[in-house]
Amino acid sequence: MSVTTRFAPSPTGYLHVGNLRTAVMNWMVSRKAGGTFILRIDDTDQERSRDEYADQIRRDLEWLGLTWDREEKQSARFDRYTAAADRLRADERLYACYETPVELDLKRKAQLASGRPPVYDRAALKLTDEERARLAAERDPHWRFLLDREEIRFDDLIRGAQKVDAASLSDPVLFRADGQLLYTLASVVDDAEMGVTHVVRGADHVTNTGAQIQIFRALGTDAPAFAHHSLLTGADGEALSKRLGTLALKDLREAGVEPLALVSFMARLGASLPVEVITDLDAAVEAFDLGQFGMAPTKFSSDELSIHSAKTLRALPYAAVADRLEDLGLTDAEGFWAVIGPNLDRLDQVPDWQRILTDGAEPVIAPEDREFVETALGLMPDKPWDAETWSVWTKAVKTATGRKGRGLFMPLRRLLTGMDHGPDMAALMPMLKGGIRMPKDA
């Protein structure tokens, strides 16, 4: 069977790590099977959908390497949803309801107060023709799908055997009174007509899946296979929202998060296998397995992502970063990457290192090290420096001062780089083209 998956974001805001996880998992499933991945823009809410959000979604996915085989826009398919609705009406599975939101809210409160579940009572089906005509003259109806009151069973690829009792559900609204088409119907029609075979989405859709399976059947088609992944939470267990700007993909990109790190992080978060550093997407695809994911809510940590991103960057071969280094003004920089790359947290630190190599660093000298540094400067070998310079210099300084270990090496590193840690100094010294800045008040 040819595998087809889809990612259907709504262009009403920016992608964040919560819905990215859904995108990554669907992409992985299709790519591992050699199948098709569809980007489906869910823009049926024409009041809230924005072209700039849709454009940003595309940019985010392209940045991550999550390429799609074709793109669909739901706003171009209203005729298909209308045809499906007409079929459901003809089969008496879609019916008009005339309660206002206020009336529905009062019904729910009354049911709860009497200890009953807040399930729609299907009062609209009990209206006489005269009552229906009178209400239709006063207001536009919303439209509900008539559920078969049965137990709906399906095998979830993550959660295992699932059952949804349709008798405990309200008949789902497919069209609001203002004519707004809802996701429930549009998604079913698209999945059926686009040949979607696997749907991976959040655990908050499990009940909705039960209702949609009945809609698939009512339209005369089989439902795809479903997998419902655990929901991501913040560090304190709070739900993630696409309105949390610090977790928007565009902000993570601006913060210097490596795209490959973000994909590999999301492809393992919540799985029994640990998050591992990978250096190409093919490795992530090969290792991906839906069966490794659990059902418990999964905490997302920005700090853990940052650490993973730094590890990923340091592991990348020069060929993987050459173009980006060139964008930063570095060409033929393989030597630079071999020495500096393993010490970077983010690629945007490259300009800082360029300045150090070209102009010298602002030295950091502790008061107790000033005399030591002055002695060391007097013993500095003349340029040009080579791979032996650091060893020759430190041996001379050690002989003159008696210092050794950290007390010897750390002040010299701080003098040349202004940092407590960094590249191997023997490899770095030949790259230092600028002069040594004298410590202030030295």
Q: What can you see in these coordinates?
A:
- It is a single chain.
- The protein contains 18 helices and twelve strands.
- The protein has 442 residues and is an alpha/beta fold.
- It is elongated.
- The longest helix is centred in the N-terminal third of the chain and has 16 residues, at 17-32.
- It is 43% helix and 12% strand.
- The N and C termini lie far apart (75 Å).
- The protein has a three-stranded parallel beta sheet with strand order 1-2-3, with helices on one face. Strands 4-5-8 form a three-stranded antiparallel beta sheet.
- α6 (183-193) crosses α7 (206-218) and α9 (259-266) packs across α11.
- The chain has four domains: 1-88 and 183-316, HUPs (Rossmann fold), CATH 3.40.50.620; 89-175, Glutamyl-tRNA Synthetase, domain 3 (Alpha-Beta Complex), CATH 3.90.800.10; 318-358, no CATH class; 360-431, no CATH class.
Which terms summarize this structure?
442 residues, alpha/beta, Rossmann fold, Glutamyl-tRNA Synthetase, domain 3, 4 domains, 3-stranded parallel beta sheet, 3-stranded antiparallel beta sheet, 18 helices, 12% strand
Question: How is the topology of this model organized?
Answer:
Blueprint: E1 4-7, H1 17-32, E2 36-41, H2 51-64, E3 70-73, H3 78-90, E4 94-97, H4 101-113, H5 129-138, E5 142-145, E6 151-156, E7 160-165, E8 173-175, H6 183-193, E9 198-202, H7 206-218, E10 225-229, E11 232-233, H8 249-254, H9 259-266, H10 281-287, E12 298-299, H11 302-315, H12 318-327, H13 334-340, H14 350-359, H15 370-378, H16 389-401, H17 406-417, H18 425-428
Parallel strand pairs: 1-2, 2-3, 9-10, 11-12
Antiparallel strand pairs: 4-5, 5-8, 6-7
Helix pairs in contact: 6-7, 9-11
